[in-house]
């Protein structure tokens, strides 16, 4: 994106790695029914993330790329921090 965002990239990359490890541990230890559900959600999330990466790399350039990636990061952060609230629905 830009040459001066190494800290943001490091923090986001580390957070993503920790989340992936957490999900993989859950998938290994979960019951069969939950495992299938989480694998489906994990596949969906990876697909959306891949689409965002490909759009930002191949379709956008300059400030529009920065704006798109900023909005994507903000939306994913809101979803990530709000997702624990989903268990309160029941």
What does this structure look like?
This protein is an all-alpha fold and 90 residues long. It contains three helices and no strands. It has helices spanning 6-29, 32-58, 63-82. Helix 1 (6-29) runs antiparallel to helix 2 (32-58). The chain is elongated and about 45 Å long. The mean pLDDT is 82.
Main beta-sheet strand count, sense and barrel state? none
Number of β-strand runs: 0
Number of helices: 3
* Amount of helix: over 70%
Gyration radius, to the nearest Å?
15 Å
Low-confidence stretches: none
Structural class by secondary-structure content: mainly alpha
General form: elongated
Give the secondary structure arrangement, pairings included.
Layout: H1 6-29, H2 32-58, H3 63-82
Helix pairs in contact: 1-2
Short description:
It contains 3 helices and no strands. 79% of the residues lie in helices and 0% in strands. The protein is an all-alpha fold and 90 residues long.
Task: List its traits.
single chain; 90 residues; mainly alpha; 3 helices; 79% helix; 0% strand
């Amino acid at each position: 994106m830009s040459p001066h965002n190494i800290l943001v990239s490091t923090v986001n990359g580390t957070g993503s790695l920790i989340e992936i490890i957490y999900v993989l541990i859950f998938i290994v230890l979960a019951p069969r029914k939950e495992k299938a559900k989480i694998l489906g959600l994990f596949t969906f999330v990876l697909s959306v993330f891949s689409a965002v990466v490909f759009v930002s790399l191949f379709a956008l350039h300059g400030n529009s790329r920065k704006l798109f990636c900023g909005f994507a990061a903000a939306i994913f952060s809101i979803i990530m921090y709000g997702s624990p609230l989903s268990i309160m629905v029941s």
